[in-house]
Amino acid sequence: MLPRSATNAALAVLLASILALPAIARTRPHYGGTLRIETQSDPWQIPDGLARRLVLDTLTALDDSGNAQPALALRWEAQNAAHRWEFQLRPNVRFHDNAPLTAESIVTALDQVCAAPNANCPWRAVHAVGSAVIFTADNSTPDLPELLAQTEFAIARHDASGTYDGTGPFRVTGFANGALTLAANDDCWQGRPFLDSIEIYPHRSLRDQWLDLSVGRADVVDVPPEMLHQAAQQHLTVLLSRPVDLLALTIVPQGALSGVQVRQSIALAADRASIYNVIFQKQGEVTASLLPQSLSGYSFLFPPDRNLDRARNLRGGSSTSPITLSADDTSANLQLAAERLALNLHEVGFNIQPVAGIHPESPLQLRRVHLEAASPRPALDELLAHLGQNGTVTGTDPASLWQSEQAALANATVVPLLWLPRAWATGERVRDLRLSPDGIPLIAGASLEGSP
Hints:
There is one protein chain. By secondary structure, the protein is α+β, with helices and mostly antiparallel strands. Among the domains are: 57-164, Dipeptide-binding Protein, domain 1 (Alpha-Beta Complex); 243-421, Dipeptide-binding Protein, domain 3 (Roll), CATH 3.10.105. Helices cover 29% and strands 24% of the residues. It has helices spanning 4-27, 50-55, 103-115, 144-147, 206-214, 228-233, 260-269, 272-279, 293-296, 308-315, 332-346, 376-386, 398-409; strands at 34-38, 60-62, 68-70, 73-79, 84-89, 125-129, 132-136, 157-158, 164-165, 170-176, 179-184, 197-201, 220-222, 237-251, 285-286, 323-327, 352-355, 364-370, 414-426, 430-431, 447-448. It is globular, with a radius of gyration of 25 Å.
């Protein structure tokens, strides 16, 4: 017979186990249910469209450290000093219409990507050999596996109606009542997702998003970085990424801005601190470097401080004819940042005219560039490609990357300003949602509490 003390201890353990059962049940993922997402953006946009990420797959995927992991490709090998790469495909993968994924279908999809205007394909040619996809490049591309994880290179087919067809965890079922609807892909090579379906409501105002979240009509909504303090005051459950969006001013080196000293004058006149403190409410980090400090470790070597006296000297007697400045998206805060930059440049003697909306022909453009890569060299390669820089990144060590970045910024056609995070608020019934390395919700791994 057990002593009384041992009996009491055993009963306590049993009682604790019984009380813990409801908590365990609450945290165990459930299959089923429909997740409702509201966002200001287009769900198909490149690179951060939510639907694009759920419907389409890439040859590789990035882990939390930014290293390439198998996805549609199981393994790969570099040859000829990384001028040639061979990717072996995962077998028995099918598109949503049940057509088999083949090396030929991947080559067709990537050729379509590279034929698009402003495509940033880092290879010269791609072709199929059996179950392998072969890439050849003019330059050494040691980070090609990481670059192929970018959603720009997601593998898509178009069905008869023109809808995207992919191999991802969800398939498109339609667009009705303002919502794009996706259904779980039961035969997905990654395994069936927990959710039965997803409704994505695009182009929703932030006011409507937050109202719907508060009354349970939405499960996941946008939180712009400048509204993180407000989200905290409202006790919202927020997922916050590292800095993943570069706010930069790009300068077309033509006409009144053809001289490098004039462009350097603009860079020195930019008041990054006021944009950071006032407009974006001290979220992210001030930068004069292309890479964030968390990736490079050297961004402090690019001083972000204003120097109005030197800016005026460099501008000299350059033309004061009007120069237009536009923002590459229509968000209110980017427009405010453009207006603040215009005031900064007026102090130096430039005649800057901010224009509302997107105007690709403007000599000055304020751009928000999303970074998917999560390791230094692929990140710098990606940013230079998206910013239209022709410099080649050499080496992977910090000194080599710093030299490559310094060379890319020397002509002052790109002026980095801020690095900003991504944030999302979630409703009470959402479970196990986390963010990808570039701050996009990993919906395929989420579940809903109470789903059958």
